[in-house]
Amino acid sequence: MSGAYREALTWEGKPHDPRRRARVQARQAFVYATAAREGLWPSDAAARRALETFLEKAMRADGLAMAILDPEGAPVDSTAYLYEHAFVLLALSALGDEPRALALRERLQGFRHPAGGFREAGERPFQANAQMHLLEAALAWEAAGRDGGWAALSDELVALAMTRFIAPGSGALSEFFDAEWGALPGPAGLVEPGHQFEWAWLLERWSRLRGRPEGSTTAQRLFAVGRKGFDRRRGVAVDALTDDLAVRDAAARLWPQTEHLKAALILGDDAAALEGANGLLAYLDTPAVGVWRERMRADGGFIEEPSPATSFYHLYLAVRELGSFAGEPC
């Protein structure tokens, strides 16, 4: 697929392209289009071409995109996921294509759930993660677009999170739910520190935009829950907690570290931000500049595997947040 973004790089900086995923093409297009808009990259032309190249080959008859193609552009997984399309909306916000985004937003109404919010495709239709990224896209379009429906979508998703996704007692946001948006208990339940931080970052932004202090209060509680998964010995946030907030998975992927840093910065917790930045550095200590380590084991060592392009979006936004805090490019 000429013009598409790479899926991953080895630690030596060599291409690794076993497939082409919608989320990769959309995230990379968002990053490079945003970088171009902010003067960090010459042009958004490559981002436009990459997104167009993928969508042209991946488009289904219903106007939604397949999730995965092979390197030559043939279908591997023709499912249309809400998660993938949230990132397409995000990329379109950076590219300034509101007519296309509005058309896609209308198509996503097919994912609507009678109890509120949106169902996801696949075996676990009632989940918070895809809605979180849809909120991210809606907030981006509030800044980039003119249609009032983006603010309405943002408000709807925030209300769903604050009334259904987040437990009133613990303040923890669960990942998976039943059809009435009731959190799944026990082993079926899951709390991810990285998503506590990511939701906190989004809710604080929404709170400031709307002048609604309850959003900021909720963000602070989510951040405190996420910090329960911070391993001081390794200086990193772990991947998962149980529903009673004990460590469930002590491995530590890269992306929870970027979200820890982003949330700490926007919430003004300088000590946590310093811990987050220091923890993130270990993931960037690689033989080739521009690649990263993705998965830290519980013993502090790293799994040797290619660096997935999906994580560049997380890294870019974390460094952007750090630059905003520092008042100069980082």
Describe the protein:
The protein has 330 residues and is mainly alpha-helical. It has a domain of 119 residues. The chain has 11 helices and 12 strands. Strands 2-1-12 form a 3-stranded antiparallel beta sheet, covered by helices on one side. A hairpin with a 5-residue loop joins β8 and β9. It is globular and about 45 Å long.
Major sheet description = 3 strands, antiparallel
Mean pLDDT across the residues is 96
Helix content: 40-55%
Backbone CA Rg: 19 Å
Global shape: globular
Strand content: 5-15%
Unreliable stretches covering 5 or more consecutive residues: none
Sequence of secondary-structure elements: EEEHHEEHHHHHHEEEEEHHEEH
Number of strands: 12
State the secondary-structure class.
mainly alpha
Strand order of the largest sheet: 2-1-12
Number of helices: 11
Question: End-to-end distance, in Å?
Answer: 33 Å
Give keywords.
single chain; 330 residues; mainly alpha; three-stranded antiparallel beta sheet; 11 helices
What is the element layout, followed by pairings?
Layout (H helix, E strand, L loop, with lengths): L7 E2 L5 E2 L3 E2 H16 L7 H14 L9 E2 L5 E3 L4 H14 L2 H10 L21 H16 L4 H17 L27 H18 L2 H15 L2 E2 L4 E2 L2 E2 L5 E3 L2 E2 H13 L3 H12 L13 E2 L10 E2 L1 H17 L4
Antiparallel strand pairs: 1-2, 1-12, 3-4, 4-5, 6-7, 8-9, 10-11
Helix pairs in contact: 1-2, 1-3, 1-11, 3-4, 3-5, 5-6, 5-7, 7-8, 7-9, 9-10, 9-11
